[in-house]
Amino acid sequence: DAGVIQSPRHEVTEMGQEVTLRCKPISGHNSLFWYRQTMMRGLELLIYFNNNVPIDDSGMPEDRFSAKMPNASFSTLKIQPSEPRDSAVYFCASSLAGQPQETQYFGPGTRLLVL
Amino acid sequence: GNSVTQMEGPVTLSEEAFLTINCTYTATGYPSLFWYVQYPGEGLQLLLKATKADDKGSNKGFEATYRKETTSFHLEKGSVQVSDSAVYFCALSYLDGYNKLIFGAGTRLAVHP
After folding, report:
1. Minimum distance, in Å, between the CA of residue B82 and any CA atom of chain A
2. Out of A5-14, A34-43, B96-105, which region has the weakest mean confidence (pLDDT)?
3. Which H/E stretch holds residue B80?
4. CA A28 from centroid of its chain's CA atoms
């Protein structure tokens, strides 16, 4: 089992540039979650999807952030334009919805640094 | 609303010491409860879970019991190792049908030889 796959693992960019983070969930999972983790704020849920449809994006910090899930095996989180305060580790997680005892499986994260 | 409160860290222990990390929750309904662990530079991994009251989850020597009467899910280990140094997160499942999780703030554990 490949687990949740995220790319890139590390990203360094300059302020104002567009950043795209990618996630491939575990095959068969139908819920997908995007999180951001920083020392100051801890772990924050940004947005989650079910069956490719966004369910709750209330955690997305600003309009500069957008997320899509064009199909069951791929999701992107885009930041445009990026700012230094967006520097964080971004995690994607997937789960099999409808089963409360089922857990979320996390990817290894993308470490983003905006200069 | 639903929330999870964990004891603040860092927790610093010597190898072979007994570990307790407290976790209490507020929830409507009967959520499942989880402990996740995050090793340095990695994502969160499920450590153990309990899906109903009085259930005990266990894994790798760690245990936690779902206590409905005290709304608690404390993590324990009888003898910690240096390799247990990590951040531990308590979480509950938000009963919206999508497996959304409500996480605590995390507790950092440092185990010294």
Report:
1. 22
2. B96-105
3. none
4. 18
- Whether B31 and A100 lie within 8 Å, measured CB to CB: yes
Residue type at B93 in one-letter notation: S
pLDDT per residue as tens digits for the range B26-59: 998 888 999 999 999 899 999 999 999 999 999 9
Amino acid B98 reads Y
Helix or strand holding residue A101 (H, E): none
Cβ–Cβ gap A104/B106 under 8 Å: no
- pLDDT, tens digit, 9 for 90 and up, residues A17-30: 999 999 999 999 99
Residue A98, classed as helix, strand or coil, is coil
The closest of B22, B18, B52, B26 to B35, measured between CA atoms, is B22
For every residue of A62-95, DSSP letters joined together read STTEEEEEEETTEEEEEESS--GGG-EEEEEEEE
Spatial separation of the C-alpha atoms in residues A33 and A7, rounded to whole Å: 15
In angstroms, the CA A106 to CA A25 distance is: 9
Q: What is the pLDDT of residues A65-80, one digit of tens each?
A: 999 999 999 999 999 9
pLDDT > 90: what percent of chain A?
86
- With beta carbons under 8 A apart, name residues in chain B contacting A48: 98, 100
Task: Count CA within 13 A, CB hemisphere, residue B43.
Answer: 22
